[in-house]
Amino acid sequence: MMDYFELALRWILGMQLTFWGLNGFFQWKQIPPSPAAIDKFVVACIESRIIMPTVKIFEIIFGIFLLANFAVPLALVMLAPIVFVISALHVFYNKKAWEVVVPLTLPFGMLLAFHYETWLRLI
């Protein structure tokens, strides 16, 4: 039963990251408006011409890793800074932070918990 739950979490997170990573290049869906502080940060990342493409490539690659059940702990480690920045920006600057934080951070945190044995081996 828990294997199916972990599978569902990987697919939920992997599909989100892969979709939004690809959307960064192809812009199928317009990103909903955000508060001004978040928009300034996103614009600065886009204008740098290296940060946003790198983030989107990481989202695509490691989102696919999650979907394929390949190197899941590595994918979680590589995605941690991205999830942290997205979550922190919305917690501090968005009045409706739960709309972004819950669907992204909850599956991520639960996957971290599912792979706790991996983290214990590293200590």
SS field, number of helical segments: 6
What is the general shape?
A: globular
Helical percentage? over 70%
Order of helices and strands: HHHHHH
Class of secondary structure makeup: mainly alpha
Averaged pLDDT: 93
Radius of gyration, whole Å: 15 Å
Note poorly predicted spans. Answer: none
Termini distance?
Answer: 28 Å
Most strands sheet? none
Number of strands: 0
Number of discrete domains: 1
What proportion of the residues form beta strands (DSSP E)? under 5%
Overview of the structural elements:
The protein is mostly helical and 123 residues long. The chain has one domain (2-25, 35-122). 82% of the residues lie in helices and 0% in strands. The protein contains six helices and no strands. The protein has helices at residues 2-26, 36-47, 51-68, 72-93, 98-114, 116-122. Helix 1 (2-26) crosses helix 5 (98-114), helix 3 packs across helix 4 and helix 4 (72-93) packs antiparallel against helix 5. The longest helix is centred in the N-terminal third of the chain and has 25 residues, at 2-26. The chain is globular. The model has no long low-confidence stretch (mean pLDDT 93).
